[in-house]
Design a protein that fits this description.
With 128 residues, this protein is mainly beta. It contains one helix and eleven strands; from the N terminus they run βββββββββαββ. Helix content is 3%, strand content 52%.
Length: 128
């Protein structure tokens, strides 16, 4: 049995996205381990074969599923890369988001969660 005590996820973060521009966020998931000599080390989690789920929700409804914008690697990197074309489809709203990672064994971890906000870019290419 697994229990979560006093923690909704490993990291709470506000996700600020600008519509119409490329948005890139990079996270690193490491585990603190105790070595046989008593020292501690931060070791990256190998995310090979893991599957991400990232959704933006408002009032319980999915406004955007950005799972396909997440790349994972063996060095513990979690790259969220939302192209300018994709972000231009996002409306200026706010809500809740989280990033779940499912291991190859089927165990799901809530890596990060919090509030998201989409704002519009101020500068735009003028039409001639």
């Amino acid at each position: 049995m697994t229990a979560t005590l006093g923690r909704l996820g490993l990291l709470e973060a506000r996700l600020l996205l600008v519509a119409g521009v490329t948005n890139h966020v990079r996270l690193l998931w490491v585990r603190n381990i105790l070595r046989s000599d008593g020292s501690r080390a931060a070791v990256p989690v190998d995310l090979t074969g893991w599957n991400p789920r990232l959704q933006l929700r408002r009032d319980g409804k999915v406004l955007a599923d950005l799972s396909d914008c997440v790349a994972l690697d063996a060095q513990g990197h979690v790259d969220i890369h939302i192209t300018d074309e994709r972000s231009s489809t996002l409306s200026p709203y706010a809500g809740a988001w989280d990033l779940l990672l499912e291991s190859p064994q089927g165990e799901v971890t809530r890596l990060v969660y919090g509030e998201w906000v989409v704002v519009s870019a101020i500068s735009r290419k003028e039409l001639s």
